[in-house]
Amino acid sequence: MTMGFTPAPTGDHPPGADAPEVVVQRLPLYVRVLAQFEAAGAEMVSSEQLGAQLQMTPAQIRKDLSYFGRFGKQGRGYNVKRLALELRSILGLDRQWNAGLVGVGRLGRAIIAYPGFRPEGFRIVAAFDADSDVVGSDIGDIQVRSINQIKKSVDDLGIRIGIVAVPAADAQGVIDALVAAGIKAILNYAPVAAHVPNDVSIRGVDPVLALQSMTYFLKPHNAGASAAGD
């Protein structure tokens, strides 16, 4: 039974079927902000309040949510707890997702040790590496497996998400192996633009790119204009 939610009239398409990818990527931000409102004891929240927290317009908030149904009532806003539950269900965050990590160097070990995944429903159940000196060792409660065991492990452990933490030169081959094993969702930490089939979702995490884009805003305001005028 859903609470406070009416599916949007989308014909034969389920709610959210036509949502742009950028909208789907914003949904976790809504979930996070709603959790903050709930922790503060708020029962209702308006699109204006959500927009102020997310630096978005109330109209954009309402448009984003309209792809997935009709939430709240005009003049009253949204029930914080109910909206959070609905969005978590839409994102599939109301269940556990098993993940397999490839590459157990310093980055891979840090990812395995990160405590923030499990509370949100993501559990790294297997780790893989090509280095025979590393295969068979333990990282926490996970034993490192050979990269050749990816397909069997995906099937045996119900792995649905692949996490790639290998050097750029090895990334595409690892991603190809994950796709061949049936993985449809990949989180890629390697600094490379990987290629995947259309039915595979891939997200890149590259802090260097983020830093490089921020330095643009740290330059003197006239630097760009001077260079352009030379």
Explain this structure.
This protein has 2 domains: 5-91, Orthogonal Bundle (Arc Repressor Mutant, subunit A); 97-211, Rossmann fold (3-Layer(aba) Sandwich). The protein is 40% helix and 19% strand. It is built from 9 helices and 11 strands. α2 (47-54) packs across α3. It has 230 residues and is an alpha/beta fold. The chain has a 7-stranded mixed sheet.
CATH topology of the largest domain: Rossmann fold
Question: What are the low-pLDDT stretches, counting only 5+ consecutive residues below 50?
Answer: 1-13
- Provide the helix percentage: 40-55%
Strand neighbour order, sheet with most strands: 7-8-6-5-9-10-11
Major sheet attributes: 7 strands, mixed
List SSEs in N-to-C order.
EHEHHEEHEHEEEHEHEEHH
Structural class category: alpha/beta
Shape: globular
Give the integer mean of the pLDDT values: 89
- CATH architecture heading of the largest domain: 3-Layer(aba) Sandwich
Give the C-alpha Rg. Answer: 21 Å
N- and C-termini, Cα separation: 65 Å
How many structural domains can be distinguished in the coordinates? 2
List keywords for this structure.
seven-stranded mixed β-sheet, 230 residues, 40% helix, 9 helices, alpha/beta, Rossmann fold, 19% strand, two-stranded antiparallel ribbon, Arc Repressor Mutant, subunit A, disordered N terminus, 2 domains
